[in-house]
Please model this.
Amino acid sequence: MVYNNKGGEKVFVSWSGGKDSYLSLLMARERGLDIVCLLSFIGSDGYSRSHGLKTEILKNQASALGIPLETQEVTWESYEQGFEEAVKGIIIKYALTGGVFGDVNLQEHRQWVEKMCDRCGISYNLPLWMMQERRVSEVLIEQGGRALIVAIRSDLVDESWLGRIMDDRYIDYCLRQNISPCGEGGEVHTLVVGGPLFKYDLSYRSGEIKHHQNRSLLEVHIS
Model:
């Protein structure tokens, strides 16, 4: 199936809980797409495969947005099979015909989306595709999205940014450091805690910081 941007089409949003999936949700809604559910992929440990967020956090986001959340347990090895099973299930459940994805400019990611959507017989929508990386973060901030920085590449980003809301100061920092302001190279991952479409902001507190190789991850507790 080819790229589709037809107003009124019923779609799911591939949901990481971070800024790119959230901004793609906002832009898809602005373009008249009918968002019927969010779809997340979870490991056996109960954490999301994309951003390492607890399933409970994703459920809290979905409740605050008023959009149903569908989840599928996968391993990295079974990801494609799990994607196909999940999408074919929600096609039946919601009578949807397309998906929305938050990819920005990585061609291999787009190719994967195209392949899997074709396999599932649905259209794909890429609202952020080829947007300037700086503009991705700027548009999020301009629209009032509140993205909490929850993971960083510690070899590229100072750990002091963990637990802070992404803002213009962070964009300026990235430009000075010559790294992507939207984290397209994996510099940061975020958790959206409020903004347009949220019925209420999520209350949260920061926990311990865990380190793994060149990664630092902030444990976040939603109350």
